[in-house]
Structure formats: structure tokens, C-alpha cells
Amino acid sequence: MTDTDVQSPKIEFPCNDYPIKVIGDTGVGFTDTVIEILSKYAKVDLNTLAERQSSNGKYTTVQLHIVATGEEQLRDINSALRATGIVHMVL
Asked: Between 21 and which of 7, 30, 38, 91 could a Cys-Cys bridge form, CB atoms 3.0 to 4.6 Å apart?
């Protein structure tokens, strides 16, 4: 089997437990900003909130689970988070 034979798993929507990890600049309000933006586009499970700072404290990772309804919603979330200027990566 070659790498071209392996297919990525397909996400079935709606997905009630879709994890989103956001990496950005550590600062006052980073987590609140992430939650606020996610809440505009999806139902957010705050019980799944996990935060972690990088070893030097420069970056913060916020992970939450949302109800994902489709690819367009995920693209909109990604665009809105990146538009803040404090988000470096959305996984």
C-alpha cells in the first residue's frame, strides 16, 4: 500500500463533538476572544475547555469541542479566528 492509497477519514456532519484547537499570542482576553468567536458560529461545550501556555509563555493553546454542522461553518470559524490578528493556527 502506498501513501496515495490512504484516504483521510471523512467527517460526517453534524458532528456533535468536534474538537477545535486554536494557537495564538498569549494575552489578556485570548481565551475569551476564542470562545466569543466560536459561540457566534456553533454551540460550544465549555466543559471541554483546555488551555495551555508554551514553555516560554509567548503562545497559548485553547481547545474546545463544538457542534460542527458543515465545512462552510468550519471555514467561517477559521476565517473569523484568523482575522483577529492574534491567532496563528487553527486545528
From this structure: 91
Indicate yes or no: pTM above 0.70.
yes
Q: Domains in the chain: how many in total?
A: 1
Report the distance separating Cα 91 and Cα 65, nearest Å.
12
| Host domain of residue 83 | 25-90
The cell numbers describing 46, all together, are 465549555
Q: Is the peptide bond before 14 cis (omega within 30 degrees of 0)?
A: yes
Q: Residues 13-70: pLDDT tens digits? A: 999 999 999 999 999 899 999 999 999 999 999 999 999 999 999 999 999 999 999 9
Comparing CA positions, the residue from 84, 76, 83 lying closest to residue 20 is 76
Specify if 57 maps to a domain.
yes
